[in-house]
Amino acid sequence: MATTGRQCYRLFAVQPVLVLAAVFVAVAGDAGVGVDGFITWDDLSIPAGASQRSTWDDTAGGGKRSAGGGVAQTTTIVVSPDGTGHSRTVQGAVDMVPDGNKRRVKILIRPGLYREKVTVPITKPLVSLIGMGTGRTVITWHARASDVDASGHQVGTFYSASVAVEADYFCASHITFENSAPAAPPGAVGQQAVALRLSGDKTMLYRCRILGTQDTLFDNIGRHYLFNCDIQGSIDFIFGNARSLYQGCTLHAVATSYGAIAASQRSSPSEESGFSFVGCRLTGSGMLYLGRAWGKYSRVVYSYCDLSGIVVPQGWSDWGDQSRTKSVLFGEYSCKGAGASTKQRVPWSRKLTYEEAQPFIGRSFINGEQWLRL
Length: 374
Known about the structure:
The protein is mainly β. Helices cover about 5% and strands about 30% of the residues. Strands 5, 6, 8, 9, 11, 12, 14, 15, 17, 18, 20, 22, 24 and 25 form a 14-stranded parallel beta sheet that branches. Belongs to the pectinesterase family.
């Protein structure tokens, strides 16, 4: 999970992760997120007719001249591998979005297997990637932390991402994000392979699949809402220092021995980061820790989740540093399933009361009332 890669899965400390400085774009009043700056279901839906016809014209800043002489806001870019859209590649479509964009631009990605690395840069907020089914629209790459770039340096975990999102107000729906690098066994060096990195603020994913093994989803920084998504991995397959709510998601383990779901990097009590899983379902193989204390103040909570018997009875790991047991917040509330018994949990984890769980259960955990209108 460090930029140079962790040395092995065993519980050792890592180097600090490179993070991008957050740049917040003023969007209140912009057309892309409504007049008051909220993400709505429209931002995640296919525009009427867009799957059959092209609607993008950048000759007038993305607008087409209407019959009355005004500029119509036509803000859909179509990606199609057969050349019938505006771009054959997803990155090519992202490149068409103007820097400093102030209105919602939907990139409709027609069915296909897109073998490419994609970056949505910090200068291009308000972008939606909309697929046509997670089994039909797939963005995949195969980079690992130990891969060497053109300058001869290892790319590290941070830059191994198949898709990297650095912009604010990003949305995605009905897409598979995949890192297809070979599965990393426990103890392997430099095998971290990120499918998706989220480094922007106010991000929503709906009905997406995020597939990999070690370090699948780099939930780096910002506030994020993942609703009805499938996330697959083996070792720390959700990790980072974001503040994120996972609601109704399927967490599917492909571990061959021991693994872990979440590794929160929170390193001070003043940081508001952490991961909250609400109404999620754990499936798959191996023996999984619910979370590991990557940061001294790591914070992970499971509420109303269905936990299969692949959860190790102890539930949680201190990352090999007993001092962290005094400062982490690892909690469970009203979970069910063969892996939900707390009788053998480590004594420093918490079985939360309703009052203690409340701050983590709703969208208020990610200040959703300020940017989500669903």
